[in-house]
Amino acid sequence: MSKKRASSSTPFLVRLDPSASQPLHRQLYEEIRNAILGGLLHPGHPIPASRGLADDLDISRTTVLQAIDQLKAEGYLKSVVGSGTRVADVLPERLTQINGQPRAVSPAATPATLARRGMAITGIQGTELRAGSEPRAFRLGIPGLDLFPRKLWNRLLIQRARLTSVPELDYGDPAGVDPLRRAIASYVASARGVHCTPDQVIVVGGAQQGIASVCRLLLDPGDDAWLEEPGYTSARSALIAASARIVPVPVDAQGIDVAEGIRRAPGARLVYVTPSHQYPLGSTMSLQRRIELLEWAHAANAWVVEDDYDSEFRYGGRPLMALHGLGGSSRVIYLGTFSKSVFPALRIGYLVVPHELAGAFARARMYSDLHPPTLQQLVLADFIQRGHFARHVRRMRKTYELRQNRLVREVREEIPGSLKLRPRNAGLHMVGYLPPDIHDQDVVREALSRGVEVSALSLHYAGSTARNGLLMGFASVDEEGIRRGVLRLRDAIQAARARPSGERVA
Questions:
Q1: Comma-separated ranges of CATH 3.40.640.10 domains in the chain
Q2: At residue 12, does pLDDT exceed 90?
Q3: From CA 79, how far away is CA 356, in angstroms rounded?
Q4: Please, are residues 277 and 311 in contact by the beta-carbon 8 Å criterion?
Q5: pLDDT of the residue at 127
């Protein structure tokens, strides 16, 4: 374990272990919190500036800011204009009341309730889920729900409910109902070149459950797993839950750097990739990189999890064939979801697995939540088989292209010097890069206070080379909503730039 002392303003030893499964920002958060509760840091005591603390501990400033922000949000630290960050005068534990009397809480009286792995999983910061609220600019991961054919869907739902048979009220196939698995097998073959039988299709509760199932069944604790850098935070969570050793592998304009992945972990057991539309940067993996990845996977006997993220929504030319269709069917597990192409509340995704693994995945599904909801599966099967799905995707593809173009135009006109957008020919979001003097997490907070949702690019990095930028979803609001959102975002960026150095929003 490496022991590193913070700056002279912090009279205690900060112990960080880079090899631990718990993220560094969570370790730093606990070190400072325990020092406050243990009396080493008294109310009003100054906390070193984030840059100095990062330099002393040899970690990224983003890691320090994540820990400091969490401590501020929980009331342990406060920002003082002109004085930086200090320990709060009244700590959260001192506000806890029992029978109307203040209770003093010591570290020994507040034992951790989660295992280290649980703390690592819940400590990941990324996109916040705001359930049940109206979509607004520029929320990630939400399709154009305003244009979904709800009346048609409800009609199909009513028809299926009326026709429900007695056997369909019983427990179903853990792998999913046969009509839906057939519909999915037919769709991925025609749209993505993924040739499989319905028996290879495993219906899951969205992409996240699919990733978790793969990690749980194919990884042993301590196995190396490549993860795109920057990458999908939910995939990182699934790998942590499986006690894998995450190996961040950088992404460039051609996708994941396979040669660098081999250099860092040649014997990795699994790699998670988003080759069609890399999340979050939006690049497409080149054919050469795809071939290199498949060749390595076959030689290393490794598994490739191909998350075909947003592959339906492409605005120029046809996408490259899926990895699974490029002769990778024996080592590639293909993952898809209907959350973006239909609607998120449906919670239906699917895996395409090799024949020899299909039985194991079905049994694992049975031991987790038995099977997906039967009625929703049957309605989705009707929606696909009757051609409604294909028509809906075609319509939304045209709409999303218009909304993306409007976002690009508005940003270039209203925020030309402070946000550099990188348009892509696929997907439902774009990345906007910020100048060095504006921190993306500051903009996120300022934007949220103005009714706009953006996500910080820096939180999608597992290493210390985070870039400063914003992820902006453009699919969930109309063009006029996009314009209003850009004007508010402009104000948020100006407010974040105007904030004195060292002062951050809790």
A1: 148-387
A2: no
A3: 57
A4: yes
A5: 53
3-state secondary structure (DSSP) of residue 271: strand
Distance between CA atoms of 262 and 253, rounded to whole angstroms?
A: 18
Exposure string over 244-256, b if 16+ CB within 10 A, otherwise e: bbbbbbebeebbb
246, amino acid identity: I
Residue 432 contacts residue 421 (beta carbons within 8 Å): yes
Give the mean pLDDT of 273-286: 93
CB atoms within 10 A of CB 472: 28
User: Which part of the chain has CATH 1.10.10.10?
Assistant: 2-122
Lowest model confidence (mean pLDDT) among 105-114, 131-140, 337-346, 354-363: 105-114
pLDDT at 456: 94
Give span(s): CATH 3.90.1150.10, the chain.
391-498
Q: What is the CATH number of domain 2-122?
A: 1.10.10.10
Element (H, E) at 47: strand 46-47
Q: How confident is the model at residue 178 (pLDDT cuts 50, 70, 90)?
A: very high
Of 231-235, 324-328, 374-378, 491-495, minimum mean pLDDT range: 324-328
The CATH fold of domain 391-498: Aspartate Aminotransferase, domain 1 (3.90.1150)
Sheet containing 224-229: which strands, arranged edge to edge?
A: 201-204, 349-352, 332-337, 303-307, 270-273, 224-229, 245-252, 255-256
Structure tokens given for 205: 């509760």
Q: How confident is the model at residue 270 (pLDDT cuts 50, 70, 90)?
A: very high
442: CB partners within 8 A, 6+ apart: 496, 499, 504, 505
Token pair 């269709």: residue: 325
Report yes or no: 24 and 59 within 8 Å, Cβ to Cβ. yes
Distance of CA 259 to the CA centre of its chain: 25
Tell me the CA distances in angstroms from 373 to 169, 183, 297, 393, one per residue in order: 10, 17, 35, 24
Q: Which CATH architecture has domain 148-387?
A: 3-Layer(aba) Sandwich (3.40)
> How many Å apart are CA 248 and CA 227, to the nearest integer?
5
